[in-house]
Amino acid sequence: MKTWILVAVLCVSTGVFAQPGRGKHHGEREKLTAEQRTELQVKKMTLELDLTDKQKADIQKLVLNRNKNAETEMAKRKADREAGKVPTKDERFAMQSKKLDEQIAMKAEMKKVLNDEQFEKWQKMHEKRKDNFKGQRKNFKKEKRR
Quick check: 46 and 118 in contact, CB under 8 A? Predict the structure, then answer.
């Protein structure tokens, strides 16, 4: 009797772990264009920060520029990775430095466009998003080790 229960538990647990996960198994989803992502981001910001029409237009330009730059950088890194090119220590430093410079510039521009209350909210939203990303990244690393 105990062996039958053990066999049943093993069958059920194996079936649960055999389910396909997210990722390439389900096929690649088409990614949104930079313009589509920008429009969605600006709409979310409008809801959260109660933006005026002028603020929306200014932020639209900023976010679109950032999204287009990110898209080109990602394409470049993907091409390098597929070619088997590994960035050197100096190249990694330059990429990280450039990314931080862009973040500083974005923050300064947002401070010009938003009023003090909106800027506070934006910073909190930004921090929350960063924390969520860190949590997802941690979970991804755990899954990758298995």
Answer: no
